[in-house]
Amino acid sequence: MDLTSLGAVGYRADGKSDVLLVLAHGAGAGQQHPFMTAVAKGFATRGVDVVTFDFPYMRERRKIPDKAPVLERAFTEIVTAARQWSSATRCFIGGKSMGGRMATHLGAAHLDGLSGIIVFGYPLHPPGKPEQLRVAHLGSIAVPVLIIQGERDAFGTPQELKLPLETMTAKVTLHVVAKGDHSLAVSGRPRDQVLNDVLDVAAAWMRA
User: Fold this and answer.
1) What is residue 176's predicted lDDT score, i.e. its pLDDT?
2) How does DSSP classify residue 5?
3) What is the mean pLDDT of the chain?
4) Phi, psi for residue 174 in degrees, rounded to 5
5) Which of the two ends of the chain, N or C, has the fewest CB atoms closer than 10 A to its terminal CB?
6) pLDDT recorded at residue 16
7) How far apart are CA 205 and CA 98, in angstroms?
8) Pairing outcome for strands 145-150 and 9-11
């Protein structure tokens, strides 16, 4: 199936790209959320082919996300279509919050041909429930991982992430957004400025 039939959107890189990123949305907003479109367009201007999509519950306008196996299947289907759409030879997956966590699920399941994973705000635990950690699968990931986490993220601070990440055998890079929240917003700093800094880091990481 192609991207259009799956409701996905492709953002072509400025110039020929050898890097593809398939990007999943968070639990509460789909691929047309301003954060998602800004990230996709920002990566495209940095020479990365990007594909975004909506999970089934979002396409069907349901508020409650599907169970993990459904999300994982949908994500995998989009990755297959995205690889046919893009001529890039290196494929990365990632996402915002829940979408990023699903990317780590695919990484733990050893998705074929994966070069790495990027997570914008890893949802380590529900807000106010630090005992409900979402880390059991992390040790199974073999590809490099970049986690971009706000210093004040209510779903898990960089300090809270430190111990789980130290137990992983994969190479993990944790980039902290000073004073950032779960959406990587920083009080007193323009949103575009923060996002540009983050995208520069992520684009350089993929090329490295």
Assistant:
1) 98
2) G
3) 96
4) -110, 115
5) C
6) 84
7) 21
8) unpaired
Which residue carries 């990023």 as its tokens?
100
Let me know how long the chain is: 208
User: Which among 156, 180, 49 is positioned nearest to 100, based on CA atoms?
Assistant: 156
Q: What confidence category does residue 1 fall into, taking pLDDT thresholds of 50, 70 and 90?
A: confident
35-76 residue pLDDT tens: 999 999 999 999 999 999 999 999 999 999 999 999 999 999
Of 12, 23, 79, give the one whose Cα is nearest residue 52.
23
Please tell me whether residue 106 adopts helix, strand or coil conformation: helix
Mean pLDDT over 11-25 rounds to 94
How many whole angstroms separate alpha carbon 52 and alpha carbon 26?
12
Widest CA span of the chain, in angstroms?
Answer: 46
To which residue do tokens 């790209």 refer?
Answer: 17
Integer CA distances (angstroms), 122 to 45, 99, 145, in order: 25, 9, 11
| Distance, CA of 48 to CA of 59 (rounded, Å) | 25
Nearest to 76 by CA among 109, 123, 30: 109
pLDDT given at position 81: 97
Amino acid at position 123, single letter: P
User: What does the block give as tokens for 3?
Assistant: 């991207």
Q: What is the pTM of this model?
A: 0.96
CA dihedral 87, 141, 158, 64 (to 10 degrees): 80
Token pair belonging to 88: 């890039």
- Whether 113 shows a pLDDT value over 80: the answer reads yes
